Amino acid sequence: MDLKLLPAEASPEERAAVASVFDSSSEASNADRVAREGLNEAKARRHLLLPALHAVQKAVGWISQGALNEICCRLIVPPAEAYGVASFYAMFSTVARAPRVAHVCDDIACKLAGADAICATLERTIGPPGTSSADGQATWLRSPCLGLCERSPAALFQLAGSESADDDTIAPATIDEIEQILNGATVPAPAVGSTPQTSGTREPELRLLRRVGVADPTSLSAYRAAGGYDALARAVQMGPAQVIAEVSASELQGRGGAAFPTGRKWDAVAKTAETPRYVVCNADESEPGTFKDRVLMEEDPFATVESMTVAGFAVSAAHGYLYVRGEYPLATARLEGAIRQCRADGLLGADVMGKGFAFDIELRRGAGAYICGEETALFNSIEGFRGEPRNKPPFPVEKGLFGKPTVINNVETLANVLDIVLEGGAAFAGVGTEQSTGSKLFCVSGSVERPGLYEVAFGTTLGGLIDLAGGVRDGGGLATVLLGGAAGTFVSPEHLDTPLTFEGTRAIGASLGSGVVMAFDESADMRDIVLRIAAFFRDESCGQCVPCRVGTVRQEELLRRLARDGARPSPAAEADLLDELARVMRDASICGLGHTAANAVQSAVSMGVFEGTERE
Amino acid sequence: MIDVTVDGEVVQVPEGATLLDACRTKGVDTPTLCYLETLTPVNACRVCVVELEGSRTLVPSCSRAAQPGDVVQTDSPRVRHSRKLVLELLASSVDLSLASGDVRRWVDRYEVDTARFGPAAAPAAADERDGRDSGHHHASDGATAETVAQPIKIHDEMYVRDYSKCILCYKCVEACGDDAQNTFAIAVAGRGFDARISTEFDRKLDQSACVYCGNCIGVCPTGALVFKSEHDLREAGTWDEAKQTMTRTVCPYCGVGCNLELHVQDNEIVKVTSPMDHSVTHGHLCIKGRFGWQFVQNRGSE
Prior knowledge:
Strand content of chain B: 15-25%
Strand content of chain A: 5-15%
Number of helices of chain B: 7
CATH architecture of the largest domain in chain A: 3-Layer(aba) Sandwich
Structural class of chain B: alpha+beta
CATH class of the largest domain in chain A: Alpha Beta
Number of helices of chain A: 26
CATH topology of the largest domain in chain A: Rossmann fold
Number of domains of chain B: 2
Largest sheet of chain A: 5 strands, mixed
Strand order of the largest sheet of chain B: 2-1-5-3-4
Number of strands of chain B: 12
Strand order of the largest sheet of chain A: 10-9-13-11-12
Number of strands of chain A: 13
Radius of gyration of chain A: 24 Å
Helix content of chain A: 40-55%
Largest sheet of chain B: 5 strands, mixed
Number of domains of chain A: 5
Distance between the termini of chain A: 65 Å
CATH architecture of the largest domain in chain B: Single Sheet
CATH superfamily of the largest domain in chain A: NADH-ubiquinone oxidoreductase 51kDa subunit
Structural class of chain A: alpha/beta
Radius of gyration of chain B: 21 Å
CATH class of the largest domain in chain B: Mainly Beta
Shape of chain A: globular
Shape of chain B: globular
Order of helices and strands of chain B: EEHEEEHHEHEEHEHEEEH
Distance between the termini of chain B: 64 Å
Oligomer: heterodimer
CATH topology of the largest domain in chain B: N-terminal domain of TfIIb
């Protein structure tokens, strides 16, 4: 391909950053793909586009024309396409930007915890979002949910320069701390305590959280001492077909939100005639209010690596991709460490455990795009394209990553597989309810006494879970609960006896979604919360299809009219119009983002959140 | 051949045909915007959706492969609603004044009413939309409906880009890319409502990879991309399609044999297109055939 490049040169730092992406292992795997899949060099390398953009962003704080040239030359990607990809992600800047950036979360849980006051102060001291500080070294931006809701308010720091530390987060964040870090202070070590059930007397029933707080998450030997890699050894004894049979018998359903039977995915991929096959772990957890996968990856990263290996063994895939949310630096570091140690110990590589099968994992870091949690958008993102969802069918089990049969599972879903292999599918299915098997992680945040990640068997009621988290904070009254995240539903306290199961939530017109349970007491400004959710979907729509691209804009405009008593021509007419927008987004959008973009806001409107403007 | 039921009537289509093919076989007028026979379907506009029995959501007929026994509704309340809303969302945010007669017919058929979203917001300043950051936007108070309106881009003597008329159908990107030209001068940049067609860093076309083949203009369904010659006549108020004739001929420049359609008004060539159904060009040309026609009109006044 002839490339017409920009008249700009990369700086030595930019050149070195791009070069760092081409390590020997990626070159070997590319050569492998060229040989196996008959790709040309350019197509085999394109998947390095996102890592290359990350490397440049980290090195100099933005993607300059010279840097883009360098990337395009090395990867043989047309500059217009590379720019299209770079400008798609919120964590990349295509204009010069200060090297120290604070992304201050002002999403739902952080808003409840005073994020707006932090933003107001930064606006006063530095200026509006995106303004550089007086010395030009720092800036700040508002951010969608950073997945640190149990310790809200939160902030993410992108720190550019080869001398700088890696990106990092703080939660709970104070304005003083944010300003100190922007002025050059080091980011303090992460606070502990995301899982109240593992402090003090441990609950014996914990399954998914059993190693949290017990085994050092940075040590493979600690993981093995705590039973790690027993499941893979058992899986190898059983053989691929039996592993899939057990997963099917367990009736495990996906924990990312769609609740698809995992066994059916694995079985479909194992039965395809096509090779190579891929295993992808969807760790792009971005649903507002969700932090379960983050805690698993931070506290038990080897379990993610082991469970992906089990999946690879079961479906005869030799390559796994682990796509971690860009805003999760600690999880990324822990997983990188885990992958490195597993490789060194022969638990990943050409001959896993000496059992004669190959499996290795490449970690990919997202760059600030909720839509990339949609499985086909995630594939496009890994492949070096804009994170736009593909039309389904074909489904990933047929044409997934690189157009090949792919198993794609959420982190929590995979974590369950280890128990299924060890105890058998039937025993696993004995936990929980008939239609919702196993245990479930719930991200409890908002106005509760002890926010955190809780593991309970399916069937626990909504009220029971809130009680487990200490009930409503300061003895306040419960106004409403957001169930399932921004794509979920607001439910009123009358539903507290609803069992938290797939079928139980369905019965009240809600869904478990990604396991979000966010409580709001009577002091919460629900209008403000609903407007934030509408803004979120407008920001995060990829823009590909009309119903979602324009529908999310019209939805936000409509809610703003309701909120400021500017309903036109009447609140009832606006509610009808909102319903019409919801229907076109649900019926005609390409993917789940558009399908669910009206769920929570509609439930809030029908609960009367905007009434009162009406009475005037 | 496979059987598909469209609005209660069984039609036969070849294997590999789409539901759109089935609708057309039955003679159902199915609206499409981002679809073109010569391009890979991106199914982004969603105006061609139909109700497929057994599917939770509506499906895009342009790209959904017909399966034996498919039962499809093209005029159910759900289909009518989604098509109406898609057209309303576009018409309320994009200037459709140069869209085809087909589009105007569909706008009437689905009773498109853009007023219910409120008056249009003020246009963006020049290049402002090109600099918008993904993941951040300034929310209005809802009193006005946001649009993509912005100043027209005229940077050279061949192309005019009026992105106030862009529905983001991806056709120009596909024609510039591997569906036709393989030049890759333009792509979609940004995200969400701020997504736009752009060169790298929004550089002007003459500094980009653009080779001025005009194929992006050839596929644009809304007049967002037009030839400068056409734009100038429109501005002067003298563009009159009723007065134009179209003459089909063969390009004189090289031996490929591309067919040209010369659009002539007042004995002057005002635009050159290529027939979509021609086996050599499939509607596409190069810069010479597309723009190199002035010599024909050089009648030697001296």
